Amino acid sequence: NLQISKILLHMSKNLREDADFIRKKGEKEFGKLLRKERENKNQRWLVLDREKLFRLHPALQKRVLREGIRRIKGNLKEIGSDHLDSVLDLDGKRGTKQLSLPGNLVIQKQYEDFLIKRGESKNIPFARYLVIPGKTDLSQLSLTLETRLISVKPHSFLASSFMDLKEKVVLNEVSGFPEEEVFFDFDKLKPPLFLRNRKKGDRFCPLGMKGSKKIKDFFIDLKIPVEKRGKIPLLVNRGKVVWIVGHRIDERFKVDNNTAKILTIKILKHFQD
After folding, report:
1. CA-to-CA separations, 91 to 97, 98, 101, 215, in angstroms, rounded
2. Quick one: residue 223, left, alpha or beta (phi over 0 = left, psi -120 to 50 = alpha)?
């Protein structure tokens, strides 16, 4: 009836106000407990005062942890109350203890602190020759690439279509970033081509830029999280990086006005995030 509806509406309003109060109070307490917060090229982390945290009411303890996790992870997806309980349970254990949470998050109980950070990147090792023409599967990354070779004699009936495609590629009217389909001057390559993990010191010449760049720095510029970098395949030819798959090709292998044969590579199935 109408009276019950009014009571429920009033209760709902009170609950929202209480939740908002606890949230704001938690954010305020987080500011008091935050000892350090750092972000560098490879890692982001923060440190909370453990002793002060456990002086708070249990509801506020969880609010403070949520805020810390949100700052490092970027969101609270897959983080439930049971995860927060597990973090708080670390306090009863002696010495330094560590807990892994969804989203490659690590919580470490130290002597006086709680450290919240991203876990170390775990590369998925892979190495595979690129099939030309045809399909190449990298099952470790749930990735499928399809390649085609387009080569047309000057006066054949396909010549005009080939020239139209080449003109669009040269003018950069076909591919965008991230690249779903890329085009190379096949005569500038020396098969076989190889898909592999990034290695320390890898460099390439990004399309549209002069000079070479460390791939590590390229990832930093694109703000690609550290934990995702090891999962991004590189297409390599004779030791040179031809393509950072899904991101950028190398300037040295692009299609130009002198191109006679085009290699196209299309992403049919995306690799894991």
Report:
1. 9, 11, 16, 41
2. left
Query: Which domains does the chain carry?
Result: 2-118 (1.20.59.20), 127-269 (3.50.40.10)
82: left (phi over 0), alpha (psi -120 to 50) or beta: alpha
Extract the tokens encoding 126.
């892979």
CA-nearest of 227, 251, 248, 209 to 104 is 227
Question: Nearest Cα to 50, choosing from 35, 69, 71?
Answer: 35
Q: Is the pLDDT of residue 167 over 80?
A: no
Band of pLDDT at residue 175, cut at 50, 70 and 90: very low
Could you tell me which residue, 44 or 271, shows the higher pLDDT? 44
Q: How confident is the model at residue 98 (pLDDT cuts 50, 70, 90)?
A: confident
Percent of the chain with pLDDT over 70: 84
DSSP letter for each residue of 156-216:
STTHHHHHHHHHHHHTT-S--SS-SEEEEEGGG--S--EEE---TT-EE-BTT-SS-EEHH
Report the C-alpha gap between 228 and 121 in whole angstroms. 7
